[in-house]
Every structure is written in structure tokens, then in C-alpha cells.
Amino acid sequence: MSNLTFSVSGQSLSQTQLNARTLDFNILVDQPESFGDRNEAPSPVEYILAGLAGCVNVVAHLVADELQIKVSNLRIDVSGTLNTDKFLGKFTLERAGFLSIFVNIKAATDASDEKLTKWLSIIETRCPVKDTLGGSTPISLSLKRKVLEKYCV
Amino acid sequence: MSNLTFSVSGQSLSQTQLNARTLDFNILVDQPESFGDRNEAPSPVEYILAGLAGCVNVVAHLVADELQIKVSNLRIDVSGTLNTDKFLGKFTLERAGFLSIFVNIKAATDASDEKLTKWLSIIETRCPVKDTLGGSTPISLSLKRKVLEKYCV
User: Fold this and answer.
1) CA of A37, closest CA in chain B: separation in Å?
2) Are the C-beta atoms of residues B29 and B44 closer than 8 Å to each other?
3) If you measure CA to CA, which chain B residue comes closest to A89?
4) For helices B44-66 and A44-66, what crossing angle results, to 10°?
5) What does the DSSP assignment read for B8-26?
6) Do A63 and A101 share a structural domain?
7) Of the residues B50, B136, B140, B152, which has the fewest C-beta atoms closer than 10 A?
8) Which domain covers residue A123, as residue numbers?
9) Across the interface, do A144 and B105 touch by the CB < 8 Å criterion?
10) Is residue B145 very low, low, confident or very high in pLDDT (cuts 50, 70, 90)?
11) What is the rounded CA–CA span in Å between residue B136 and residue A132?
């Protein structure tokens, strides 16, 4: 495998709730109460951060094996700050997305500092989600008008 | 509110599984069987795409209200292609992350084409997740060695 395509089919359930169907799962997306909904599921940006943590976990283990580093008790905390002004339609010079994201990895290991620095730097390069968020990914939005069938009874 | 910080605490459960704890929820992240795990939850990249669909849903409704457009039956399908070579440590000139992402919105609406074009263009600008994935977000990775306590019994 080289090129792989991933997709989700999202059905809007309300102004803030969406059910995203993957090949095998449903991911319910919602917003906190402060944004006016029921807070029944994580928010879009929380899923982004969780995806980043999950991806770092996979790459961290993969690269640790390659470098013959033993790591255990891996903890990956991710946080990001964004300015909501643009999202809310207020005038701002800030971007809409995360201004910065911090990934803090904690691991129990007896590897040398030198090996750990190498480990971290390879994780950073090879993590698909880190690269997606950190680089510029071309995103195209397209719109199709849906015709609602009318049933006359 | 202007600046908001979101965070998840991720606990690695295996080489591919991670539980990301948000303020109110647990997000289980896994990998497909083809990557060697149990496929018990969506993958990191599927969460990224679901987060994008969920965010577009929120902004689409927000902006439709502002433009006084009625939309219903909103469906937001998102797909992205990535090359797995870099992730797997093979030599490649391709990036690790998504090469491109497509967002297809379907909506039942009687708004004019002109208004819909404006709608789409504002969604694109104001969606925090679209802006995060599409722009360059500074991401810092840091590492802390964890000391495992030893219990002698």
C-alpha cells in the first residue's frame, strides 16, 4: 500500500450535531453547551486533538521498535488554543484555526537522552496527523443542491 | 470568549490503541486490522475527517442563519488521500499527511446560486478545523521521562 483514501459520510442531526459514518463506526460530533447544544459528544476540535494523540501513539511505538527503545506507560497529552472571533463572524486578524498545539509525551524508558531526542524527531516527521495539521493541506469544498422528493398522499 | 484552549489527555492502551479523555468524554482511537490491531474504534485520520465534517456542519448552519438561507437535510462527506510510505519509514518525497482533502456538502435549499456561493466561501473562511488542517499550525512536541515507582513486596 502507498496511497490510501479515508472517508467519512456525515449526516447533520442538528445545528451542531453530526453523525460521521466511517467504514466500521459511527462518530457522533457535538458542541459544548456554551455553544448552544446538548454536549452529548466531543466537539470537532477535540476529535482533532484526539486524532493527533492517537497518531503520535502509533508512530511512537513503531519508531521505538525500530530504534530498539523500550517505552512503557506512554501518555500523550495534547492541547491547543484558538481564537473564536473569526468563527463567530467578528472582525479579527487572528486565524480561525488553532494558533498553536502542544503535544506532551510522557514515557517510562531507560533509553539514553540522545536516543530519545532522535525518537521524538522521527515521530514528528512521520506522524500523518501531525503533518496534516502542521503543514498546509489542500482542502476543496464543493456544494451540491439536494432535491427533496415530495410525496403526495 | 476569544481565546479558548481545548485539551485531551491520552493514555496509550497498546501499540495502536489510545484513550483520549476530554473534559466530558472518552475517545477511543484504534487502527484498522491491516495496521495490526483490533479495529475496535476509528483511526486517528478518521477522527480528523469526522472533526472536519462536524465543524463544517456547525459553521454551515451559523452562516446560513446570518445570510437568511434555509438549508435542510445537510450531508457532509469528507475524504482524504495520504501516502503511507513516510509513516512506514520508507524513502519517499511525499509528505506524511493528507495530500488532499475533499469536502462535499449536499443541502436541500431554495436559496439562489449566488447566495450559496457566498455561503460556501464564508464557511471555508470561518471553519476552525478547515483552517487548522488547511493552514500551517505550529505544533510543539515535548518529551518527559516518567519515573515508574517500584513497589517491593
Assistant:
1) 10
2) yes
3) B126
4) 160
5) EEEEE-SSS-EEEE-SS-E
6) yes
7) B152
8) 43-134
9) yes
10) confident
11) 9
Does residue A120 lie in a domain region? yes
User: Which member of B51, B59, B146 has the closest CB to residue A47?
Assistant: B51
Let me know whether A34 and A85 are in one domain.
no
Q: How far is CA A50 from the centre of its chain?
A: 6
Cβ neighbours of A52 in B, within 8 Å? 44, 139
Residue A7 lies in a domain: yes
As for how many domains chain A has, the answer is 2
What is the structure's pLDDT at A33? Answer: 78
ipTM of predicted assembly, 2 dp: 0.94
Instruction: Tell me the nearest-neighbour CA distance from A125 into chain B, angstroms.
Output: 7
Q: Say what the pTM is.
A: 0.94
Same domain? B50 vs B60: yes
Are the Cβ atoms of B148 and A62 closer than 8 angstroms? no
Q: Tens of pLDDT along B126-144?
A: 999 999 999 999 999 999 8
